Structures are given as structure tokens and as C-alpha cells.
């Protein structure tokens, strides 16, 4: 594959100017980092007393339970979002105008509303209508409303990107419209969009931190805040540990998304061309 540059190659003077800008920017960032470290050191952030509470196993147990609660909410929310997203994708590619427009309205509305606002809606409005649930389910419902709309559009994109011959062949073999979507198009769309779905799971996992506003669900951020309130000299340290916990999970999910993307590209490269498939069929006949 040929890589074409959008601009002309930089000349000697431009390269020299870019090098100077890079050096100046790097020096400024290094100076800012040193200033921040010096300020934190002066405030005693790196002192042994500030980190002493973390020698207690109970604190790590509390943080671990909070992280597991984040993972549980993200996992349940992702499963429900996939179910809602598949239904929305079917509606978005439906031949029925009313169903297609209704699915588009849902997708546009709930993908545009901030997740925090949806969380306030589920936890404050739904109980007024008799829906008494725990904070875990209020969080999951909010995640599903938002992420289901995004995933529905992702799966729709995967279905639309498939060659039209896929559905035509399935219909010619006697599959119904629903059977073609469920048995032929959906598996291929999910496979091709798997890296994007994992990226959405990362967004979903980070969104679980918003459960902090509920107060009744002990997730990682809430656990770190409780530790900081009990050990006042270790508030920033507890928040730092919580941030590292989020970072580790997100990095692992990012690695999974990258591996799925590389695998998808490898499968597309190894797939036989239509001309090769036709010649193979002719040779077999």
C-alpha cells in the first residue's frame, strides 16, 4: 500500500525549526513536571507517613472490592448494551420506515445525553414511579441507555459495510429478513466491529466511576474517598491508587482492542478474493 503525504516534504530550514520547537516544548514540559514534583514533595505527598496506611491489608481489600464493583457494573452494562444495540441495529436497517425512524430517534437522543444526567434520571426519577432498585441497577440502566445507543450505531455500521451479496444470497436460500440479519449479517458485523466494541467497553468502565454521586454503591472512587476521609493525610495518595487501578484495567482493555484489530486485519488480508473464489468453484465443478 502506498502512503501519500498531504504536504510537501519539509526542507532543511523547516526541519531545523521543528527541532527547535520540539526541544523547547520538551524543556517546558520537563520544567513543569519538576515544578509539580517539587510542590508535591514540599507538601509531603511522598513522605512515608502519607503512605503508611497502605501497609494495612484492609485498605487494599476495600480498594479491590471497589474495583470489582466497577468491573461488575461494566460487564453487566455491556451485556445489556449489546442486547439493546442489536435490537437497535435491526431497527436502523429495517425496511419499515416507522421502525427505522424510531430507532434513529432513540440512538440520536440517548447517545447525546451526558451519562451523568442519565444516572441522575435513573436514580431520582424512576423511584418516583415505583421502580425501587439498588444503586447498582440504577447505574447499569444508565450505562445501558447510553451505551446501547452507541453500540446500535456501531453494529449498524458493521451490517451496512458488508457486501450486499451476503443478504441477497441468504434470501435466495430461503432465509427470512430476520433470519438473514440474525444468522448471516449480525455475526459478521460483530466480528468486524469487535475492536470498536471493546473501545466502547473502556468508555463504559470509566463511566462506572460516576456511581460516586449515588453514594450507596461502593466502587473504586468511593473506596478511595472513604480512605481519604479516614486518613486525611492520605487523601491524594488514595485517589492516586484509584487512578492507577482504572489505568491498569483500561490499558488491558486497550491491548485487547489492538489485538482484535490486528487479528481482523490479518483475516481480511488472508481472505480469498471473489475472483479466486469463482475460479475455485469452476475448478471444483
Automatic annotation (TrEMBL):
Record keyword ATP-binding present: no
A GO cellular component annotation in the UniProt record: ATP-binding cassette (ABC) transporter complex
SUPFAM superfamilies: MetI-like
MF (Gene Ontology): transmembrane transporter activity
Keywords noted in UniProt: Cell membrane, Membrane, Transmembrane, Transmembrane helix, Transport
Boundaries of every ABC transmembrane type-1 domain copy: 67-257
Organism: Arthrobacter wenxiniae
CDD domains tied to this protein: TM_PBP2 (cd06261)
Domain of life: Bacteria
Cross-referenced Pfam families: BPD_transp_1
Compartments it resides in: Cell membrane
Name of the protein in question: Amino acid ABC transporter permease
